[in-house]
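lol forgot to send this yesterday, sorry. struct tokens for the thing we talked abt
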């Protein structure tokens, strides 16, 4: 099932029913990114345990990245630009259910702080929200945002960006001077290619991009 929730330009909430995306496909505006973007790799962190919460996040029922079709088409252009340079794209997160955002908030109010040393050593759990690393809503839930990095097409290794995905720390800023010049140049390499295809970087997170000039009228919540 999936739920269509108005977030802008609507006067009422609409709920429809269809089969689960893992069984029969997606709403018409959406697609599986790996069916559109050449040589795309993915490792959906919130579907597993390697994330700042330390467990699978509510709403992640599949293992494949989902995007709105216009965002996937733009990402294909990024891949086409980077391929001659020897790089491919790896996605850590794409479409994010609204339930996941609520799960993050509930976790932030719990006593669990077990992942702090790995993911947010210099701030508190409350600082994750105060520092605007996470909010109550997300562009991911509109299907137009990705957490993304580069990998080397020759050896398959991730390009050194000077930090891991979701390291919630000032050093994760795209222009941070706390990383080496080579690592910062790698971040800029990704940023430049994404910009050329119409994506905008969130400056505090070198991995986070949203499709620019996109009107996210709706938020979809794929439900089990």
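and heres what i got for the seq, position by position
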């Amino acid at each position: 099932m999936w739920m269509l929730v108005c977030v802008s330009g609507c006067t009422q909430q609409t709920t429809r029913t269809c089969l689960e995306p893992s069984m029969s496909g997606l709403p018409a505006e959406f697609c599986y990114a790996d069916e559109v973007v050449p040589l795309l790799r993915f490792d959906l962190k919130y579907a597993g345990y390697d994330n700042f919460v330390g467990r699978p996040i509510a709403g992640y029922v599949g293992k494949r990245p989902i995007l709105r079709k216009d965002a996937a088409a733009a990402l294909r252009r990024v891949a086409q630009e980077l391929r001659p340079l020897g790089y491919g794209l790896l996605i850590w997160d794409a479409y994010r259910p609204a339930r996941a955002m609520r799960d993050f908030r509930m976790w932030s109010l719990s006593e669990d702080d077990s992942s702090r040393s790995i993911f947010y050593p210099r701030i508190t759990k409350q600082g994750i929200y105060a520092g605007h690393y996470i909010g109550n809503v997300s562009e991911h839930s509109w299907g137009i945002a990705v957490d993304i990095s580069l990998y080397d097409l020759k050896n398959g290794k991730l390009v050194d960006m000077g930090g891991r995905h979701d390291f919630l720390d000032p050093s994760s800023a795209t222009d941070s001077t706390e990383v080496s010049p080579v690592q910062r140049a790698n971040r800029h390499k990704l940023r430049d290619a994404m910009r050329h295809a119409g994506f905008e970087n969130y400056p505090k997170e070198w991995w986070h991009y949203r499709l620019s000039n996109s009107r996210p009228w709706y938020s979809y919540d794929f439900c089990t």
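The chain has a mean pLDDT of 88. anyway ping me if u want another try
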